[in-house]
Specification:
With 288 residues, this protein is an alpha+beta fold. The protein has 2 domains: 9-149, 3-Layer(aba) Sandwich (Trna Endonuclease, Chain: A, domain 1), CATH 3.40.1350.10; 167-286, Alpha-Beta Complex (Aspartate Aminotransferase, domain 1), CATH 3.90.1150. The protein has 8 helices and 14 strands. The strands form 3 sheets. Strands 1, 2, 3, 4, 5, 6 and 7 form a 7-stranded mixed sheet that branches. Strand 9 (205-209) and strand 10 (212-213) form a beta hairpin. The radius of gyration is 26 Å and the shape is elongated.
Length: 288
């Protein structure tokens, strides 16, 4: 005898007398895995915001230190729900920059009109949209969450490198003098991590060992200096030390996690010890 097929019944939560937003929020607080975002812990519920209002749920992935700012809405998503979600996400990421933050719109119905709007925002903001449906089966209720909009996947530095070129093209694009500065930096790199050679690509010069990219330091030669990028996680103590080093520091590149310094020929001698420290930190962080 084959098992009996039981058809589920979709329940309109917004119009239900008892399965209201408070009920939904309590269920997600008890079991945040219902959202389909992995194993999360609840950091806070109804989290008061400095600007007024309360964030429905603040969830955190312990392994990755990623936080999710979740705003819940019964019925169809609307403008105020989107704005509120982004506002609370922005407040939390500014208050706690040590975490990665993702805004999550959780609604009973994500209509095509607002899905298009959210998709446009998703290119600039880490934003997800989850549609939550209440379901009744034989008198019991459950929730089904469908991720209708996921995060935009960012490309890697290696994917963005462009075509492989040769040294002559960089000498023409920048100058022979700036390439000599890069040579001096590469020599320092090899005193710390031997076997590294320049890898010339269209947009930057990376490092390689045996043909494999190992870009813990990258070079972007210009006419008179080399913008050098050190792949090191941002730290306040390190940032302060660099700002007092006497080197020409460029603002930190948050997307790829690089400290950036404009290095001239004189820096190879005058600031050699600082450069050795930076390259060592970048190497250690890269191969950690």
């Amino acid at each position: 005898m084959s098992p009996q097929l039981v058809l589920p019944k979709i329940v309109n939560l917004k119009g239900h007398p008892t399965l209201n937003e408070r009920w939904l929020q309590d269920r997600l607080t008890e079991n945040p895995s219902l959202l389909g975002l992995g194993e999360l812990e609840v950091r806070s519920s109804e989290r008061r915001q400095p600007s007024g209002g309360r964030l429905d749920l603040l969830l955190q992935n312990i392994e990755t230190s990623t936080r999710y700012e979740v705003e819940i809405q019964l019925g169809a998503v609307d403008e105020s729900h989107i704005i509120r979600t982004i506002e609370y996400w922005d407040i939390e990421r500014r208050r706690y920059p040590q975490y990665d933050h993702i805004a999550v719109i959780a609604a009973e119905d994500v209509t095509s009109r607002f899905l298009n709007v959210i998709s446009l925002l998703n290119g600039a903001i880490p934003l997800m949209a989850i549609q939550i449906k209440g379901v009744e089966v034989n008198g019991a209720f459950t929730l089904i969450a469908t991720r209708v909009l996921d995060l935009t996947t960012l490309g890697t530095e290696e994917e963005d490198e462009g075509e492989t070129v040769d040294r002559a093209s960089w000498e023409h694009k920048a100058s022979r003098g700036s390439l000599r500065i890069m040579d001096g930096l590469t020599e320092i790199v090899n005193t710390i991590h031997s076997g590294m050679t320049p890898k010339y690509t269209k947009f930057y010069i990376g490092l390689a060992s045996g043909g494999a990219a190992q870009n813990f330091v990258k070079f972007r030669p210009s006419k008179s200096y080399v913008l050098t990028e050190f792949k090191i996680p941002q730290e306040e103590e390190l940032s302060n030390w660099l700002n007092e080093s006497g080197l020409a520091i460029v603002p930190y590149e948050t997307r790829y996690g690089n400290y950036r310094v404009r290095i001239r020929q004189s820096d190879l001698k005058d600031h050699r010890e600082t450069l050795v420290d930076l390259i060592t930190k970048a190497r250690d962080a890269y191969f950690r």
